[in-house]
């Protein structure tokens, strides 16, 4: 086996022909480049967080405080990053997390992300607030066949923003199932949008521009509620109906039984930060929890997501699958989250910056970089598989 990860190999070999990767391979540099490309409103929407953005900074600081302690001479010639998560086989423990309104970053939006995910074999979690419909994104989530036609289907999970109207929620679930989405992610931390000064200062909200409502406007249950298909005539009323229905702050743990009844596959709850909530998820028959603070976009002043991970992992044990997001930017970050008990991580902003900078190819670039960097960091630290990692591989220098 080559001492280089595949993507590294390809870059150096192309480099001999004087060809360089079009985007930086240090993914932390993408935000600055995206700022130059996007409108101030769209950039503020993706880069911004809640309040003073203290939690967004804490998410990164928590990664910086933890250090990997590399081990030597352990035969790392053969590496295998593959994992199976909630029934889905994955070539690496990395998913594309749910991010709505992607057409504000690039007109190709979620279908471009879906093509990139399928090309890399990674699982995409599609947001209810996507700018394209469940069905459109599924149609794009395929690999190219040898003849240039359609090849295989990508791995699909669906993220539900549970609307007030239960009939609408059931309709979303049915559409997702019919379109080949196998696992349900239910986001709990966004029952209402938080205080987000960057968006407030620019009076920028994608939905009011009609972006992020594709799944609602295309839904028969939604259409019935607004008196028929959405046209110029009832567009304003439809947006108001969306706004009234999007979040449901009245939800409680008892409501989860309803979802369990209406979804046959695995369910993971996203936004869990407290060990007691993780235990309640298990008690409610959930299959997984996603430790996430929404990238610091909801509760400013909240604990860094990485600091919440060990407690949740301990509370859950092997009774459910623990996933993680909020702050992943490098392969080393993935190693740290896995070491603290996550089975896999979700990427958020980095792949969206890739989308902004290069459409489908930009997303592919980000996915390939993070996988190659993960493989190399794992091997150079003395490990060959994600399952080899445990808290002992990390140090917290004073
Ligand atoms: C622009 C944007 C839109 C998002 N939309 C959603 C969404 O529709 N559903 C959801 O569950 N999470 C959403 N998230 C949160 C991500 O799934 C993820 O938790 C977060 O991006 C992780 O933080 P990081 O990007 O800083 O790593 C969004 C995040 C961003 C940046
Ligand atoms: O902006 C977000 O963080 C988010 O989760 C969201 C909520 C509603 C619609 C689109 C994205």
Q: CATH class, please?
A: Alpha Beta
Superfamily (CATH H level) name: Aldolase class I
DSSP summary, beta strand count: 14
The CATH architecture category equals: Alpha-Beta Barrel
Question: What is the CA–CA distance across the termini?
Answer: 39 Å
Principal-axes shape call: globular
Order of helices and strands: HHHHEEEEHEHEEEHEHHHHHEHEHEHEHE
Secondary-structure map with pairings?
Layout: H1 6-16, H2 30-37, H3 40-47, H4 54-65, E1 67-68, E2 83-85, E3 88-90, E4 94-96, H5 109-120, E5 124-127, H6 134-140, E6 142-144, E7 150-153, E8 156-160, H7 166-178, E9 183-187, H8 197-201, H9 214-217, H10 220-225, H11 235-245, H12 256-262, E10 267-272, H13 275-283, E11 288-291, H14 305-316, E12 321-324, H15 331-339, E13 344-347, H16 349-380, E14 394-395
Parallel strand pairs: 4-13, 5-8, 8-9, 9-10, 10-11, 11-12, 12-13
Antiparallel strand pairs: 1-14, 2-3, 6-7
Briefly, what is this?
Belongs to the FMN-dependent alpha-hydroxy acid dehydrogenase family. The protein has helices at 6-16, 30-37, 40-47, 54-65, 109-120, 134-140, 166-178, 197-201, 214-217, 220-225, 235-245, 256-262, 275-283, 305-316, 331-339, 349-380; strands at 67-68, 83-85, 88-90, 94-96, 124-127, 142-144, 150-153, 156-160, 183-187, 267-272, 288-291, 321-324, 344-347, 394-395.
